[in-house]
Specification:
mainly alpha; single chain; 5 helices
């Protein structure tokens, strides 16, 4: 069995393998985008000698965790659907980031302020990140329960 065959079998077929790869790639790209958008404000605060706000630091941590996780999940020979719970955790983290910054910036009028406009854009990137992680969490959960085998309780040898 070749590399491609193993990768395809782990992900539920060739089409699902391609969909998985595309979704994880977009998760990585958008996580890096969030790192840049929120990092700009943290860098400006650092330059002016102001301590970084914990909300922005939280967004940076979530973006970093999501970027690293999506890169790990792009390795095609891993059975990433076994860790479906981690997808749900990252989804909840993105939900929190979207909730915090959405409540701050969705109804804000930028009035020519590029910083506020950048943060309004960042909120929508957070929303897309949240939806991508929700999609992969649902798919991972379904794939986990579909491919799971049941073994006997005492010896673990017999299929039940």
């Amino acid at each position: 069995m070749g590399f491609k065959d193993r990768a395809v079998n782990l992900h539920g077929g060739f089409v699902f393998f391609i969909v998985h790869t595309v979704l994880r790639f977009f998760q990585f790209v958008l996580a890096c985008t969030v790192l840049g958008l929120y990092g700009t404000d943290l860098n400006n605060a650092r330059i002016h000698g102001v301590k970084g706000d914990s909300k922005w630091v939280f967004a940076e941590i979530v973006g970093g965790i999501a970027a690293v996780t999506s890169l790990v999940y792009l390795i095609p020979i891993l059975k990433w659907h076994i860790a479906f719970g981690w997808d749900w955790v990252i989804f909840v983290l993105w939900l929190a980031v979207f909730g915090v910054f959405g409540s701050m910036y969705i109804h804000e009028n930028p009035e020519g302020d590029s910083g506020v406009q950048r943060m309004k854009n960042a909120v929508w990137v957070d929303l897309v990140n949240m939806l991508l992680w929700l999609t992969t969490a649902i798919y991972s959960t379904l794939l986990f329960f579909k491919t799971r085998t049941h073994k006997s309780l005492h010896t673990g040898r017999a299929n039940v």
